[in-house]
Amino acid sequence: MTSKISxxxxxxxxxxxxxxxxxxxxxxxxxxxxxxxxxxxxVTLLDISKCIGCEECVYACQEANTDKYPEPQKPFPKMYxxxxxxxxxxxxxxxxxxxLTPYNWxxxxxxxxxxxxxxxxxxxxxxxxxxxxxxCVKLCPWGxxxxxxxxxxRIDSDICLGGSKCKTVCPWDIPERQTGxxxxxxxxxxxxxxxxxxxxxRCYNRLEEGEVPACIEACPEDVQTIGPRxxxxxxxxxxxxEMNGYIYGEHENGGTNTIxxxxxxxxxxxxxxxxxxxxPHLDKVKNLMADGTNFAKAMLIAPIAGLAAxxxxxxxxxxxxxx
Amino acid sequence: xxxxxxxxxxxxxxxxxxxxxxxxxxxxxxxxxxxADIPGxxxxxxxxxxxxxxxxxxxxxxxxxxxxxxxxIFNRSGLNRITGSGYFKIVILTxxxxxxxxxVIKNLSNIHFGHNSIIVLDLVHLSxxxxxxxxxxxxxIRKKRWVN
Lengths: 323, 148
Known about the structure:
The complex is a heterodimer.
Chain A lengths: L1 H23 L1 H12 L4 E6 L8 H10 L41 E9 L2 E9 L8 H4 L6 E3 L5 E3 L9 H5 L6 E3 L17 E3 L5 H5 L5 H5 L5 E5 H14 L3 E3 L9 E5 L3 H7 L17 H9 L2 H22 L1
Parallel strand pairs in A: 1-10
Antiparallel strand pairs in A: 1-8, 2-3, 4-5, 6-7, 9-10
Chain B lengths: L1 H23 L22 H28 L9 H23 L8 H27 L7
Helix pairs in contact in B: 1-2, 3-4
């Protein structure tokens, strides 16, 4: 543990200067044009081979989003039935950075794999994938989860009741709940709701102001790039070709706005990473909204079928009357 | 003719049952309140399953409503035959189909509705559903018919 902290402290100290230079130069200037000039969804590209696991992005995320973190009221209201409604309280564990929590929307996942017979260690920044057709947004029963036109998805903490449906339908189980905060306290706290769900909102407020997300700005190794979808996909494929690597996120769940490029196949990485609560996998994900889309198309047949049946009945009865 | 009317009634009742059940299943309540623990009802806690069942039931409901509408028009049945409660239910059903249709469109990829529009749609759809249930219960108890 001690060695881990000292390594982090060392890396943090040595790269802060580099990070701040990057923040004030090209990245910041590019951000303005990216966020205002494109009609395409904005996609982030993460070159995993560059990540050194320094956690600068993690701390930058926390710093940039501190104002959005919950300040729960304690004691929590008694919620019924108690066996089915777990209290989830992270307010005393705000410094946890080795998994996703309501106070940590980005963490570094350690992975390893074989390349040309050599084992290599990799570190992967993990957060919400910002799906192109996000189930968390589309299936939220209250409209608390939103998708912006620039492709990012976020949860409105003023409306969310903390029912955790977004987490259940998310293929990566990303959103995390904090009990004792949000609008449910003003409604029926004992019988409905359980706090607010939190996840990466890709610094929507920074993007609105023409800035890039904090994690991108803070990265001393330029692991992340942000830009219009077509441009980023082109870059991702070129990068994958250059390093003889692999892509994750382009087709997962029908396509996401987060693209990882790795020198190691993601099947291998997925086997090596620690997964579980707050620790998303890197497995293949089918398009979970596809069935709904297909049934929606089939729904167009309904009026035609109804009309045909009514006309058929009318035709048969007219024929009978004429005879 | 009577058989067709009865069949229509059964289809409407079954559709209304499943569309309401799967509609409420969009909210995370069945698992919390042990309903999904009842043998055979576990699917109520599976959001993708209730989502599809809701779509299927909606498809049947729309087809049935259009069938009845045109059957009414072709037979020149006369609007004055529709009862007050019948009119009320028609208005509610129309609102449910329109708001539901918009929500189906909203769920398609690359479709963006305004945040407030989505919240309004959700609340309108839920409120109309509650109204339809109340009116249907009232007409069932008081044996009120759609048409005289």
